[in-house]
Each structure stands twice: as structure tokens, then as C-alpha cells.
Amino acid sequence: MKPFRFHMQKVLDLKEKETEQAQWAFGRSVQQKQQEEQKLYRLVDKRNTMSDSLVDMQHSACSASDLLAVTRFQQVVDRQIETQKRRIIGCDKEIERCKEKLHYHLQESKLWSTLRDKAQTKYIEWQNQVEQKEMDEIGTNRFLRQLKQV
């Protein structure tokens, strides 16, 4: 007998490939968010260092222009922190979009795999029936030969 061949195998392969690509995209989006969070932590650390330095400058003798420069720089870092927070929110949205896409492709892939499994089960049952008919025919022929010999 010939081996089982799923007539929609190319579609199944395509669905599995799409699922794999969706998994990669999801992984990349999670990795991107982690990188953006690390940038935020560095900015917050920078801001805290600036705040400490500003407090130290206020307690020591320094010019007003130096205090103003540090304050302006601290404001720039604050704006960068807000921008970074918006980027992280964007990353969260991208992760959610990728998660939904991955879920959809997983369902599609599972559906096609189930169809393949059902077709394979049906093929095996058909193959077993054909084999059983052949065995029955062989048994019947033997029985008839034995009757003729007697």
C-alpha cells in the first residue's frame, strides 16, 4: 500500500510557518519592551543622580548659573523619561497585537493539524478494511480449495 499523503499538506506547512513567524514577532516585541524598560531605568537613575547632585550644589557654594544649568538638564531628563514611558506603552500595545496574532495563528495551525490527523485516521481505517477484505478473500479461497480436495 502507498503511504498516507495529506492533500492539503502545503496549506498545513504554510500555517505552521505563519505560526512560527508570529512566535518570532512576539518574542522580538517582548525583547524590545525589555530594552525600552532598561533605557527608562537608566534615565531614572540619571535623574536621581542629578537630584542628589542638585541638593549637594544647593548646600555648597556655587553660582546660580550652575544651579540653573543642572535644573535645565534635569528637566530635559524628565522629558526623556516621559517619552520613554510612552515608548513602553507603545511596546505594550505591540506585544498585545503580536499576542493576538500568535493566538490566531496557533488556532489556525491546530485546525489544519486536526484535519490532517482525521484524514490520516480515515486513511488508516480504509487501509485496514482493504487489508481485512484481502485476508477474508484468502481465507475463503483456502476454504474452497480444501472443499474441492475432499
From TrEMBL:
Keyword entries, A-Z: Bacterial flagellum biogenesis, Bacterial flagellum protein export, Cell membrane, Cell projection, Chemotaxis, Cilium, Flagellum, Membrane, Protein transport, Transport
Source species: Brevibacillus laterosporus LMG 15441
Gene coding for it: fliJ
Locations listed in the record: Cell membrane
Pfam families xrefs: FliJ
GO biological process: bacterial-type flagellum organization; bacterial-type flagellum-dependent cell motility; chemotaxis; protein transport
Keyword Protein transport assigned: yes
The keyword Transmembrane is annotated on this UniProt entry: no
Membrane topology: Peripheral membrane protein
Full protein name: Flagellar FliJ protein
Taxonomic lineage from the root: Bacteria, Bacillati, Bacillota, Bacilli, Bacillales
